[in-house]
Amino acid sequence: MESRHSIHHVLLLVLFGLSALCQCSATGVEANQTAVLLVNASEASARRIPDTLFGIFFEEINHAGAGGLWAELVNNRVLFYLSASFLETSGFEGGGPNVPSNIDPWSIIGDESKVIVSTDRSSCFDRNKIAVQVQVLCDHTGANICPDGGVGIYNPGFWGMNIEQGKSYKLVLYVRSEESVNVSVALTGSNGLQKLAAANIVAADVSSWTKVEILLEATGTDPNSRLELRSSKKGVIWFDQVSLMPTDTYKGHGFRKDLFGMLKDLKPAFIRFPGGCFVEGDWLRNAFRWKETIGQWEERPGHFGDVWNYWTDDGLGHFEFLQLAEDLDSLPVWVFNNGVSHHDQVDTSSILPFVQEILDGLEFARGDPTSTWGSIRAKMGHPEPFDLRYVAIGNEDCGKTQYRGNYLKFYTAIKDKYPDIKIISNCDGSTRPLDHPADLYDFHIYSSASSVFSNARHFDSAPRRGPKAFVSEYAVTGNDAGKGSLLAALGEAGFLIGVEKNSEAIEMASYAPLFVNDNDRRWNPDAIVFTSSQMYGTPSYWMQHFFKESNGATLLSSSLQANPSNSLIASAITWRNSLDNNDYLRIKVVNFGTTAVITKISLTGLGQNSLETLFGAVMTELTSNNVMDENSFREPNKVIPVKTQVEKVSDNMDVVLAPRSLNSIDFLLRKSINNNVDTASVLKSSC
């Protein structure tokens, strides 16, 4: 439905900060191509873009959560290592932890004449039975004297713990011994020589498992620090469930602040979680199971993500993902396993227990705090229900034998109990109708830059009625992408302009993957690259900033006349800036070609008095000297958006689009003098 109010505006001087000032015109610029962009801002041409169009997708891949967004510093805090035998099946049980086992990445301090470290099944936690046993053979007196500082074990974290001077870190561990203990706890440099924080655990009676909490204050900085547990007292000490968290996580919710901030800056309308292939697993026994990821962290068994080949302790679990969505002011989109993995499937005749598990998960998220599963959520500190409105039944499973049968069982059960929840099918409905009911359908695209760019028109003929598309994974990959190139970002930007223009048929879109720890690249490229202490956005991350104001904005009619026309794509929107409460008209144009283009912009339908006050705009450009340029820790801002002021503007004006560039032009809008239209109601009206 079209907007009920007219869009009559005039353009004023842009008031927000600028990084540079310049006149944007064709003067002195060599260009052998021209184009005309016609934008109609009248009521008849306008329609509302879905509030949910652009969001983010989080998958536990590349150590995105464990060792990334989830701020836990100890790697393998449950002191358990997955041995090869864990992957073997025995009867009805899909394997389990065995002892003795490798404690990697924990390492031993001292040689075997001074200390012996092993594992046993003596933990007090029923779902995490492995504990580490440290036999201290030396002493502070006698024939076998301990070395200075004592012997013990240390943990290097995820490729180094980032310890910063002046900050506090909460250490939690469990200890047991038949004798009194004197254990020194320290945060040190990577070689163990520089001491950044220290404390002692002195206890006369720890014959039963005893929880110890210590607040460590850092007196120095080292991004490659480690946690040490040492003793110089002969005897046997058991340790279990060792955790170290910075105290300055976002709202105390456990999210690393700098990485969280990069997500928040994108203004995502939704967050899809926790995968991806991470949800499926290569085998069902290693799929993500939400019930194993809630409650106190000490009782979470963790699991081996066999698709991306690393262990996660599931500290970042179902509750934390829902909390993350709430903290981002985003809608959660829960992707759950439907009884299908990469290599095995549950027959539809046996799927009902899986269905019940998902119904329980929905009750955990949305149920009354007195309900069975809602009460557990309340005990975890969130009595109010989470705003869960979307679920996806599986990931990339449409072609699997059991998918359709299983899907219908989940669909019927969920709609019966939660009729308002929108359900996403894995089957593509963009070119032919689905053969099963759904509210949305998944669409994934990974390809070369030119292919992704050309797919901007893929949804031109997609159905406008029935299920909407969820482009839940898109990215340029292969040689064009490198580790995150400008070329990749331009191909993706062109595709997203197509998504925006076809938002009658598309409800959501998100880039993939979101994060990569630079020490564990399982997939290239990614939006955000980080280590324990550093981070930067790739050009694909910065590209998404051009679209973050589109959610709930008004799409204007626009047409582009160019020769050749296959290297340019453009769109136009009006949007409300929450910072200054002003309305803007934004034009976005991608020049995918290798030549600069002089583009004449013609604006119509702005209102009777618009020409009298058209005199200011801001142009933002994403480009670089080489289309394969990338950002890096050495040059994190090599390819980022640059703002310049356009001082002389009119409703017919020329701009120069640099070759291989993404551009936006923001015009400040005001109601005409004789116009009584409420601009806010226009931008917020429903379609």
From TrEMBL:
Secretion signal span: 1-26
EC number: 3.2.1.55
Top-level enzyme category: hydrolase
InterPro entries: Alpha-L-AF_C, ASD1_cat, Galactose-bd-like_sf, GH, Glyco_hydro_b, Glycosyl_Hydrolase_51
UniProt keyword terms in alphabetical order: Extracellular matrix, Glycoprotein, Hydrolase, Secreted, Signal
GO annotation (BP), single: xylan catabolic process
Transmembrane segments: none
Domain Alpha-L-arabinofuranosidase C-terminal per the UniProt entry, residue ranges: 472-661
GO molecular function, one term: alpha-L-arabinofuranosidase activity
Pfam family, one: ASD1_dom
Cell compartments where the protein resides: Secreted, Extracellular space, Extracellular matrix
Catalytic activity: Hydrolysis of terminal non-reducing alpha-L-arabinofuranoside residues in alpha-L-arabinosides
Keyword Secreted set for record: yes
Top-rank lineage group of the source organism: Eukaryota
Family, similarity comment: Belongs to the glycosyl hydrolase 51 family.
Protein name (database record): non-reducing end alpha-L-arabinofuranosidase
